[in-house]
Amino acid sequence: MSKKDLYKNTDGEKFIETDKLLIIKNLEVIYKTDKTTVHAVNGIDLELGKGETIGLVGETGAGKTTTALSILRLLPEVTAHTPHGEIYFNGENLIQAPEERMRDIRGDKISMIFQDPMTALNPVYTVGEQIYEALELHAPEHKTKEELNARVDEVLKMVGITPERKNEYPHQFSGGMKQRVVIAMALACEPELLIADEPTTALDVTIQAQVLIMMRELRDRLGTAMIMITHDLGIVAQTCDKVAVMYAGEIIESGTAEDIYNSGKRHPYTEGLFGSIPDLTEDTDRLKPIPGLMPDPTNLPKGCYFSPRCPYATDKCRSEHPPVHVDGDHKIACWLFAEKEE
Amino acid sequence: MWRYVVKRLLLLIPVILGAILIISFVLSLSKGSPAEIILGPGFQQEEYDEYNRELGFSDPFFVRYFRYVGNLVKGDFGTSYYNKTSVWSELKARIPISLRTTFMALALAALVGVPLGVLTAVKQYSMFDTIPTAMAMIFAATPVFWLGMLLMFFFAVKLGWFSVLPVGKFKDLILPTLSLGLPHAARQMRFTRSSMLEAIREDYIRTARAKGCKERTVIWHHAVKNALLPVITVIGNSFGAMFGGTVIIEKLFVVNGIGSLMVKGIGNRDVPIVTGCVVIIALVYSLVTMVVDILYAYIDPRTKARFIK
Fold it and tell me: DSSP secondary structure string, B80-110?
């Protein structure tokens, strides 16, 4: 069995009929080394319609980036395996797609913006060359060099950079400007899905706002669906239609932004996340962080993964995995709500 | 860019002057004057003084130094103490030989070492990594003279593919090139490998993959250009080491290069010959370093930005 085959599994179909842009079913990702097995993503389900934006929220190490990379199949080849799961993009199962097909999809149909713009650009090529490359890879054959170069100017203008700067190298740009270049590169081929992996974490706060507003505008103009990976609930509130909260490789709560922010029902972990945001209207001296740390992904606890930190945890939580409580679009994986139903 | 080149060329002057100063000083400290060596044991004191005066060796150190530099500016490398020939005519005959051997060995080292380094990094932990890496360890650890002797033993003596005493045909260059080039190939391979391993883990490589680049483009277009920067320095150093420091190979394969001339000169206390060799080696080394720096600027825009304002 070659390394590439370890990526794949034969779950589900090669193609399905659907009007959803992206469907993830029971996705599981492990990182296997000689000594340990890291359970990074443990059976998540996710659906995204065309033009929708979903916020993927969670602490560092919750499996957000792994989920994103597995959609593009860019996980490290040697260690990462996908033993279970299906990822349908426009009905096509990407887990089973051949590598050549994935190359056509990457950058053209699905693009990704990475966390750190400082290192995401190749230092020895001009920004123009790097955007041009993305266009050239996916351009139809009849396009001429001039047309592609004109498009480079156009996308640079779109992200607010004067086209004259295309002959400059990444080190001549500031962090915020570099992230604009990365965004221009990602949007150059007008993808149907944009995955933004903490696009503003490495930027300072004023630049963060600029970049976010720009991304929102471009998304609305181009009708791109988006997965916004972040640990900042404020960003989610500003940009997302739907929210999925990840914890220890699972989606423990998902629903519309309305469900998460305003309905009375919340997963105890989500509640904890909100509790750790400073509130301007309340007069408190301290934040209320969630006590403890995320469980070790090489050695996950029995039962609910959040139970060791959960203030409401019962014996049942510690021994049995919680069922998913469904209320319309709002899904919560917690015993608290399952018991109420009974 | 040209201003930078001119600046670097002007910097050669103090480097060469310094090299002459150091070698002259070291030679003046060495035991035994040239006259002693040339006249052999049992000479007369008058004969000895006469000889030293004739060579200008009785003058104070700095007088000799400035006289040498003055002559050098006029293009005169002096006359050999030992066999009274012009030093430049000796050098002129040997520089092309040394350059040819060095270029051939360097080409072998770079053409074998760098691509193998890339391959081993890309196929890390596979058979394509472990076998070349093990080979590289062996070659890097083998003393040059022993490798040279083994090659000569097998290919010239046992198999008779090459003549043991070279007659100056192109074929005769193959064994010295191999024994000189292979250890450097091993060094360059190991260096390229580690540099490449670093480069392929960079974020911009993931960006390139996310764009939809072919794996070949990712490696050769995006990673190699970044990984080559430190490798170029190592290749430059190899050049310097090969040009003057290959006396053993020169002796073994009867290649009359700069290195063996210098060693002969040292044995004879032949100051003009030794100094002449040092000037040439220092000059070549400095020029190679300059070329490396210019290549650096050519590949890396960040370095270039510092040179050109």
Answer: -TTT--BHHHHHHHHHHHHHHHHHHHHHHHH
- Closest-approach residue (CA) in chain A for B302: A171
pLDDT tens across B59-103, in order? 888 888 999 999 998 888 888 888 888 899 999 999 998 898 899
Distances from the Cα of A53 to the Cαs of A240, A255, B149, in angstroms? 5, 12, 71
Q: Residue B3 falls within a domain, yes or no?
A: no
- Among B211, B225, B300, whose Cβ lies nearest the Cβ of A137? B211
What are the phi and psi torsion angles at A267 (to 5°)?
-65, 140
What is the domain count for chain B?
A: 1
**Residue B176 token pair:** 């010295």
**A95, A85 in Cβ contact below 8 A?**
yes
Q: Is A29 on the interface with B (CB under 8 A)?
A: no
ipTM: 0.85
Q: Rounded to whole angstroms, what are the CA distances from B94 to B187, B255, B257, B261?
A: 27, 9, 5, 8
Pick the residue from chain A with its C-alpha nearest to B229. Answer: A124
* DSSP bridge pairs for A88: A23, A93
pLDDT tens for A72-94 read 999 888 788 888 889 999 999 99
Q: For residue B17, tell me if it sits in a domain.
A: no
Contacts of A185 in chain B (CB under 8 A): 207, 211
The proportion of chain A whose per-residue pLDDT surpasses 90, expressed as a percent, equals 42
Residue B56 has pLDDT above 80, yes or no: no
**B89 domain-assigned:** no
User: Which pLDDT tens digit goes with each residue over B117-148?
Assistant: 999 999 888 899 999 999 999 998 888 888 98
